[in-house]
Recover the amino acids of this structure.
DNA sequence: CAACAGATTAGAACACTTCTAAAGAAGAAA
DNA sequence: TTTCTTCTTTAGAAGTGTTCTAATCTGTTG
């Protein structure tokens, strides 16, 4: 199955370029993380979960490296951080402006396109400030 | 100045009733906290800041008691918890539905009435869920 | 290759929060 | 009032997610 192999090769090269475009060296650890984060659809994931996933797939990587890279990817605009829980950070591979459903019971995030949900009538901003972002979280529980 | 004294007496009695209405005993610590939290306008405050404030006013109270009571007040509907920072919790004395400006540099919250800011076109909810709350955070930075 | 800057790592440290279990205080009953 | 019960407070230990440290390792450039 050469096509399979070629596809994988190409994928890795794309990921390496993505990493290089952030001025970062494509190390074994970064490539593995990029594969987990970016190779299929959008993800919302915490550092510890990602670490567990990596170890589960046999990728040897320390938790410090997970944090280092999540922050570096975030700084480079490859990820964004979503604040929904006062005790842990979620990283989002969708960096377009958008909003979220948050399933409180499962600790799970789901995107809401900002074309669908809109925020209206934002009041005048306090003097000397500008908007850095607008976050809408629709918190969900099980229907009773 | 008897009026002063009477006013204070009445305030404390109101606070004691507020505490009793939550099925909690009006202890010295609870009355002091209620005074700090509820006696002038709406507040957004963290546990450690409130602890510092109490100590600063000579109220002897442990941090554990601050946390215990913030949670008890929240459960009783006297406070709500606002998630804006992945590393600490803010408690809000305004329990009406409303939204927030968050001054990221100063770690400071400011209310936006939900009459002024509205969220439109919330998409259909995922199967089997219902909305528990909708939080809008308008994050602000210093204007450059 | 050599040389260097950047990256990874284990484990310590940190900040915030929760837990534990013992002592203290409030309210009800008598 | 005194007694009894239940609730509350507390110091400090423990827990949790995250960041730091400083030694080692690896990618890149010449
Ligand atoms: Mn962070
Ligand atoms: Mn809490
Ligand atoms: Zn998202
Ligand atoms: Zn508020």
């Amino acid at each position: 199955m050469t096509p399979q192999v070629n596809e994988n090769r190409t994928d890795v090269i794309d990921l390496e370029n993505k990493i290089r475009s952030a001025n970062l060296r494509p190390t074994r650890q970064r490539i593995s993380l990029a594969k987990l984060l970016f190779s299929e659809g959008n993800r919302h994931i915490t550092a510890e979960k990602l670490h567990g996933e990596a170890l589960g797939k046999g990728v040897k990587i320390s938790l410090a490296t997970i944090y280092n890279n999540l922050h570096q990817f975030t700084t480079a605009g490859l990820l964004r951080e979503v604040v929904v829980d006062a005790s842990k950070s979620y990283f989002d591979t969708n960096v377009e402006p958008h909003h979220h459903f948050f399933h409180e019971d499962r600790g799970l995030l789901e995107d809401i396109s900002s074309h669908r949900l809109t925020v209206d009538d934002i009041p005048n901003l306090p003097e000397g400030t500008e908007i850095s972002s607008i976050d809408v979280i629709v918190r969900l529980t099980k229907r009773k």
